[in-house]
Amino acid sequence: MADSMEFYFRSILMSLNIKSSQESVEVWLSLPGTSTMLVRQADNYLAADSGVNNYTIIVNEDTQYQQMDGFGGSLTDASCWLLKYKLTDQKRAEVMQNLFGSLGINISLLRQPIGASDFSWEAWTFDDTANNTDDWSLSNFSLWREDDYIRPMLDMAYKVNPGRIKIFATPWSPPAWMRSNKGLYGNGGYLRPECYSVYADYFVKYVKAYEAKGTPVYAVTIQNEPQNKPQYPGMEMSIQDQIGFIKDYIGPKFRQNDIKTKIICYDHNFDDGGKDFAASVLASDAYNYCAGSAWHPYCKGKSSEKMTEVHNKYPAKDVWLTEAGSGTWIGDDSAQFADQMYHTIRSPRNWSKSVVFWNIALDQDTSPKLAGVDEKKENRGFLTIRSDSMDSVTNNTSYYSMGHTSKFVDPGAYRIESNSFTDDIEDVAYKNPDGSKVVVLSNRTSTQKSVKIKWGSQSFTYTVPENAAVTFKW
Known about the structure:
Layout (H helix, E strand, L loop, with lengths): L1 H20 L2 E7 L8 E2 L3 E2 L1 E2 L7 E12 L2 E5 L2 H9 L3 H12 L8 E5 L36 H11 L5 E5 L25 H17 L4 E5 L17 H18 L5 E8 L7 H6 L9 E5 L8 H9 L4 E4 L4 E2 L5 H17 L2 E8 L1 E2 L16 E2 L2 E3 L7 E3 L1 H10 L7 E5 L6 E7 L5 E7 L5 E7 L2 E7 L4 E5 L1
C-alpha cells in the first residue's frame, strides 16, 4: 500500500514538473447568450506536437504582414455626454478603466468626429458663424464645443493608459459657410471651390489644437462616407474633388506646417458603388500625400477582400477599417457578436491596420442623437448607459468582441501567418512587440470543434464550443 501511494504522489509531482517546464497559454472564452463573456479559463500548455487534427491552425511568426495601429471605437458627443453626466465619479472611473485599462479591454484607437456626427445633441463644427458668413481667416475657430464633456472624457481616456491611444479624426461636414447650400446636412451642398484652401487650413488648425491639448491626431480622413447624402451632417465628395483637395491643398499645407498626421482617402463602404474610389485616388497625383484608404462594411456581402484588392494594387499604401457599427438590424445578441467577430478577424486578414466599431456608449433609446437618426432604435454601443437614472451600465456584445483583440494585441504588433477555415473555424494571429503571440478565433458553426494550434514543433488542442470566440495568448 505504501509503495502504491508513493507511486501515486510521484506521478502527480512528475505531471506538475512537466507542466511547469512547458509554456502556458492563456485562454479567454466568450459564449454568446451566457454570462461567460471574455472570461479567462484554465491555462493550456504547449507540448511537443503529435497526432492529427482536421482543424490544425499553423502559426508562423517568421512570416509577418501589416503592423497594427490599434483597435477601438468612438468617443462621440453622445458617448461623452453619457459618461460625463450619467455616471458618478466613482462609477465613471471604473467604466473608463474597463474600457481603456489593461485589466479591461485595453482600447488603443479612437476615431473622433471633427465636429458633430449623427450621434450628437446638435449639429455643429469648430468654425460656425452667425448667418453662415464667410470666415476666411478662421478667426472663429475654437474647440469650445468640446469643453464641457468631450474634452474631459478624452483626457480621462488618455490618462488611464498613457501613450497607448491613437486618434483618427474625421469630419462629417465642413462648416456650413464653406458649403454651397450653407448647411451641414448631406441632402445637397458641396464644398465651394473657393473654400478648398481655407478648409485645408481648418484641418491644420484642428490638428495643431489637438496637439496642444496633449492628444495628437495620428491620422485624418478627408470626409466620412463621401458617397452618402444623409439626413444629418454629411457631404457628398466626388473622386475628383477628393483628389484635388488632397494633392493641391491639405497635402501641401500639412507639409508646409511640418504636420506628420497621416492623410487617408475614401472612408466608406467596401462596395463603393462600383466606382473604385480609393484606387482612383491612389492612382492620381494625390498618391504622394495619401497614406492609404479607410473602409466601412455597410454593404451587401461584407466583402472585406476589397481591402486586399486595393492593397495589392498599391502595396506601399495601407488600409484601415475605421467604422463597423452594430445593432439589432443584424439580429439578436448572438448574431451581433458573430458579425463583430467576423470583422475583427476578416479585416486584419485583408491587411487592415485597425478595427474600429462605432459609439462607445449610447443610452436605452440609442441616444443622444439628432432628430430623425435611428428612429427604429437599432444602434448599440460598447455600453448602454441609461439616461433616466445614474450608474446604470450594461456591457453589450461589441465590448466583448472587441476585447477579444484589443485587450491582447498591442499597437505595433504584426499580424503573422496562420491558416483559417472560412465560415467554419476562422482566426487571425499576431506577434506583439514584447514577443508574445495572440490567436483570435471564432467558431462560425453550431457545432463544437476540436482545434489544434501548432507553433513550430509545439502545439496544444482546445475544444471550441459552438458559436464561441476564444483568444489564446502565450
